[in-house]
Write a structure and sequence with these properties.
Blueprint (H helix, E strand, L loop, with lengths): L1 E3 L6 H14 L1 H4 L3 H5 L1 H13 L10 E7 L5 E8 L5 H7 L2 E5 L8 H15 L4 E7 L3 H9 L3 E7 L6 E8 L3
Antiparallel strand pairs: 1-2, 2-3, 3-4, 5-7, 6-7
């Protein structure tokens, strides 16, 4: 397994990834809909976001990576925000966000993906990352804790109207 930059090489794998969300996790499929509608534009928007170009209001520069296996299947997606200098990011979203494709959940890929991403966050100058999960999302909380996450506190989300567990994770170990 490895983290790769989104690229044309993974177009068909991305379509399968997106379809998996549509069929098994519709709530989160919308995050990837742009890639289904116009893959080239979607990839360019991810590249722009990593370079801090054409950012929508409230966004910060953010690197996107896809976790792929030896058959070049996309198992998951992880985002590393360069900073959390907005109220939303500093309160409830954090530096790192991730998704595992529904058909690959519960197999340890989230733990592996976050482990691979932490040195990349360190390279971006993030010594300690804020990573959050819904309070009741035990699987995501386990991923964070497995990677050294220390629970800071539970907060009430302002954008997401539910309790959120906030963790701090050392990136430069």
């Amino acid at each position: 397994m490895q983290l790769v930059y989104p690229s044309e090489e993974y177009r068909l794998a991305f379509e399968r990834f997106y379809d998996d969300f549509v069929n098994h996790d519709k709530e989160n499929a919308s995050y990837y809909e742009g890639g289904k509608k116009n893959f080239d534009r979607y990839i360019q928007s991810l590249i722009d976001e990593s370079n801090g170009v054409n950012l929508p209001e409230g966004y910060v520069p953010c690197h996107h990576y896809w976790l792929v296996d030896s058959s070049q299947e996309i198992l998951g997606v992880i985002r590393i925000r360069h900073n959390i200098n907005t109220p939303f990011l500093s309160h409830e979203a954090g530096h790192i966000g991730y998704d595992i494709a529904p058909r690959f959940r519960g197999q340890g890929y989230g733990k592996a993906m976050l482990k691979l991403a932490l040195p990349k966050a360190c390279q971006l100058g993030i010594a300690t990352a804020l990573i959050t999960a819904d309070e009741d999302n035990i699987a995501s909380r386990t991923v964070i804790e497995h990677n050294g996450g220390q629970l800071d506190k539970i907060v009430q989300g302002k954008v997401f109207q539910y309790p959120i567990a906030r963790y701090w994770v050392d990136c430069c170990c």
